[in-house]
Automatic annotation (TrEMBL):
Positions in coiled-coil regions: none
Gene Ontology molecular function terms on file: 1,4-dihydroxy-2-naphthoyl-CoA thioesterase activity
Biological source species: Rubripirellula tenax
Entry's EC annotation: 3.1.2.28
Keywords in alphabetical order: Hydrolase
InterPro entries linked: HotDog_dom_sf, Thioestr_dom
Matches recorded under Pfam families: 4HBT (PF03061)
Lineage: Bacteria, Pseudomonadati, Planctomycetota, Planctomycetia, Pirellulales
The protein, known as: 1,4-dihydroxy-2-naphthoyl-CoA hydrolase
Residues in Thioesterase domain copies: 1-75
Segments crossing the lipid bilayer: none
Length: 110
């Protein structure tokens, strides 16, 4: 659920989760390196949960998110996730600095 919420947030900022290569440049994506979730109340099958996503930290190449889960206005869980900005090179994932334009978009959600 956190990954889906993260992807929705990226899309809302106009950031593709897995863009196509343009002009032979390596596309950039966001593999996750850490995730955690604290459950504060039970959620049941078919419950409709709201997930509020915010950015808790922007590093050089990493971005951390906070996820607040609620049901009918009551807190259910709190999660965190850290992803790293990477070039999808032929050799695999290579860490790279978060581009300035993307950093500015994330800063709006700090
Ligand atoms: C992602 C890596 C390639 C980075 O490796 P590297 O060794 O270069 O990174 P650093 O150790 O220097 O850390 C970079 C950056 O992250 C912060 N960080 C690292 N670990 C943690 C942690 N546990 N908690 C918090 N923060 C952490 C560190 O402080 C640095 O921050 P700065 O801001 O200071 O730069 C390499 O780590 C790697 O490959 N990891 C495995 C990733 C993985 O397989 N994850 C499992 C889920 S799969 C996934 O999420 C995924 C998503 C995609 O979108 C993909 C797209 C295309 C292909 C594959 C994808 C994919 O597997």
């Amino acid at each position: 659920m956190m990954e889906s919420a993260e992807h929705e947030m990226l899309r809302s900022l106009g950031i593709s989760v897995l863009p196509k290569s343009v002009d032979g440049e390596d596309p950039i994506s966001w593999p996750r390196v850490a995730a955690n979730c604290d459950y504060q109340a039970a959620a049941h099958f078919e419950d409709l949960l709201q997930i509020d996503v915010s950015v808790s930290k922007i590093g050089t190449s990493s971005v951390s998110y906070l996820f607040q889960f609620s049901r009918d206005g009551s807190h259910v869980a709190k999660g965190t996730l850290t992803a790293v900005c990477c070039r999808l090179a032929d050799s695999g994932l290579l860490k790279t600095a978060i581009p300035d334009d993307v950093r500015k978009l994330f800063e709006k959600h700090l």
